[in-house]
Amino acid sequence: MSRKMITQTRYVFRLAVFTAAMLAAGVVLADTPVPASQGFPATPPAPGPAPKLNIPTPTAQILANGLQVVSVRRADLPLVTAQLVLRSGGEMDPAALAGLSDLTANLLSKGAAGKTAPQIAAAAEALGGSLSADAGWDESAVGITVTTPKLPQALKLLSEVVRQPDFNESELKRARTQAIDDLRLSLSRPTTLASLAASRGVFGAGAYGHSRTGTPASLARISRADVQQLHSRLYRPDNAILVLAGDITPAQAQQLAQASFGDWSKPATPLPVEPTNKSKGQLPSPLLIDQKGAGQAGVVAAHVAPSRSDDDYYVGTVANAVLGGSYSARLNEEIRIKRGLSYNAGSRFSPMRDAGVWMASAQTKNPSAPQVVDLMLGEFRRLGNDRVDAKELAARKATLIGEYGRSLETTSGLAEQVGELAVYGVKLDEIGKYIDQVQAVTPRQIEKYAGKHLDPKYSQVVVVGDAGQFTNAIRKTYPNAAVMESDKLDLDSPTLQPVSGQSKP
Q: Using an 8 Å Cβ cutoff, are 471 and 479 in contact?
């Protein structure tokens, strides 16, 4: 008998004994329903007061070679997360090599300083941790969490994989093949393809317009020499931040950083110039992509958003929470809960160094795609035309604050939040001001912000699915809606179309 069945049997037995005892005592068990006034409440309780965060202000120091060392102390547990964060990510990919930064970061732990990938993994495991590496927009990071006594060895291992990667040809081939397989599977999903196309529509040929994880064609072009060149150009101490979060003092952080990274030489050449995102998208809107035979349609509506340094960053954050940042937000309420048109509908607000993006998405039945487009744009419009109700705003703020608090529960989460502030040049004491900044956002600020940045007239709308089931209906409202065939797209082109006279590989 399983453990679950044993537990259930014991419960039933104890319930029977309890019931018999109550009957023997003359207690009558009523079978009449409990009055509503004594049962579950009809409405959820109001959000409680916001918690008070007690986070020490991170300390920043700079080594002679330009490496910034940022530490934040949490001494309740003997744990430290160490992250080496690069101030460069997918935005630095060359035009024909989308996904190069992501692939390079992935390869760091696949062989370095004479150690093979299994040996590196075993070394990290012996320290009680595991290495993780990835690249985003504007940053790449390698990290590990260990107990405090193991930190010197962990930093030595971190230094080896960052500074002395092998980029073995066989490991590159394996990682590239896996990435292409993953991409092909991902791009078969309508919402993923719609999101990629919407990014092209917003940013065009700009640095954030391409696929950060690459395309099957771009990944196939990446060679070992490409990876080595990107590493030599960008992985340098004056372009890096060492974040240490947990049981560590600023003095210890500086000492350990000097021991592991102090001899990392700063190149004589200047840092590469960061690309800009001033390019304007060239795609029509709405854009309908025919993925013949698709069982469902992916609907995405996107807008360019301000950068992370924008003064209204917190207004945008709260506005997104109202629009679609959680299960109870407006998009999911209108599309899923009220009408059952999607399993999940939501939005994300992604501010980056040079620009940002708002992106709302939902997956629905093909015939429902026109209705979902209208609902999505209608919610953009409502956010910019009407004041958010105080009760609704309080609930969305409570969700944001709760999520933020949970993100700081672990040393790795704390390191990630601190690292993001450092990458974008935000004052480090902002980490303790998040709750106050969110609470200060007013309905009027949200209305003004949405009116400026979320006007439906400027939405980049993309629908991917079996276009024969929704094209005519969408064209009744949008006569100029363009149609492209999914198997003829060039995902590396700002127009999604092959260069004239060039066939798709």
A: no
Does a structural domain hold residue 142? yes
| Measured distance CA(145)–CA(383) in Å, rounded | 42
Kind of pairing between the strands at 287-290 and 482-485: parallel
- pLDDT, residue 32, reads 45
Kindly tell me if the per-residue pLDDT of 313 is higher than 50: yes
For residues 364 and 468, what is the distance between their CA atoms, to the nearest angstrom? 15
Query: Which residues in 472-486 are b (16+ Cβ under 10 Å) and which e?
Result: eebeeeeeebebbeb
Say if 135 falls within a structural domain: yes
Structure tokens at 6: 């044993």
Q: How many domains does the chain have?
A: 3
Count the Cβ atoms, other than its own, within 10 Å of residue 366.
19
Transcribe 235-255 into DSSP letters.
Answer: -SGGGEEEEEEES--HHHHHH
Q: Is there a single domain that holds both residue 100 and residue 21?
A: no
In contact, 329 and 321? CB cutoff 8 Å: yes
User: Is a pLDDT exceeding 70 seen at residue 9?
Assistant: no
Q: Report whether the peptide linkage leading into residue 286 is cis, meaning its omega lies within 30 degrees of zero.
A: yes
Q: Is residue 108 part of a domain?
A: yes
Asked if 64 and 158 sit in the same domain, the reply is yes
> 18 and 108, same structural domain?
no
Residue 345 domain boundaries: 287-488
In a shared domain, residues 142 and 249: yes
Domain containing residue 338: CATH number = 3.30.830.10
SS3 content of the chain, % helix, strand, coil (to 5): 45, 15, 35
Do residue 80 and residue 175 come from a single domain?
A: yes
One-letter amino acid at 157 equals L
Q: In Å, what is the CA distance from 29 to each residue of 10, 13, 35, 416, 485?
A: 22, 18, 15, 55, 67
Reading the block at residue 66, the tokens are: 């330009």
Tokens coding 372:
């979902």
Does 49 reside within a domain? no
What pLDDT does residue 505 have? 44
Contact between 245 and 81 (Cβ < 8 Å): yes
Residues 425 and 292 in one domain: yes
Using a 10 angstrom Cβ sphere, with 0-12 exposed, 13-18 middle and 19 or more buried, the burial of residue 83 is buried
Q: How many angstroms separate the CA atoms of 48 and 237, rounded?
A: 45
Residues in Cβ contact with 189 at an 8 Å cutoff, skipping those fewer than 6 apart: 298
User: Do residues 312 and 234 both lie within one domain?
Assistant: no
Give the pLDDT confidence of 291-309 residue by residue, as tens digits.
Answer: 999 999 999 999 999 999 9
Instruction: Compute the distance between CA of residue 183 and CA of residue 498 in angstroms, rounded to an integer.
Output: 19
DSSP letter for 290, please: E
How many angstroms separate the Cα of 205 from the Cα of each of 249, 283, 327, 455?
45, 11, 34, 23
